[in-house]
Design brief:
By secondary structure, the protein is mainly alpha-helical. The chain has four helices and no strands. It is elongated, with a radius of gyration of 35 Å.
């Protein structure tokens, strides 16, 4: 008998659950079909949009950056950092090539290599300055 009671109890729960799901579905359908409810939802969305615009205008008037402004700035800083890294890698490759060439006996071009080394040092110093400025911001 215990199995029969548990089975009938389970069946009753399933029927109640199914009936309540049907009822909730019908209620939701009727609410969505009601022009008063849809109008109220539309007006609420319009009010939300106007409030967002007013907030952005207020932030702009106070010269306070919005989350979108900060996000945009973050993306730009990441982009600059990636470009800077690629430039640093290229300078390192050029430096390695020049070092390997300078190690060979090329005869009489020491002045040219010294000039190139000075230029590379100046470029590296500029890149280091940009990297420090980026880290500070």
């Amino acid at each position: 008998m215990t199995d029969d009671q548990s089975t009938s109890s389970k069946d009753l729960r399933d029927r109640v659950r199914g009936a309540s799901e049907d009822t909730i579905g019908k209620l939701a359908q009727e609410l969505l079909g009601n022009p008063i409810v849809t109008g109220a939802v539309q007006r609420a969305m319009d009010v939300r949009e106007r409030a967002t615009q007013a907030q952005e205008a207020a932030f702009g008037a106070l010269n306070v950056p919005t989350a979108a402004d900060i996000e945009r700035l973050t993306r730009r800083v990441r982009n600059v950092a990636q470009r800077l890294e690629s430039i640093e890698d290229a300078v390192d490759r050029v430096d390695e090539r020049l070092s390997s060439i300078a190690g060979k006996d090329v005869g009489g071009d020491d002045a040219a290599f010294k000039d190139l080394a000075k230029r590379l040092d100046a470029i590296q110093a500029s890149l280091d300055g940009l990297s420090k400025a980026q880290k500070q911001s």
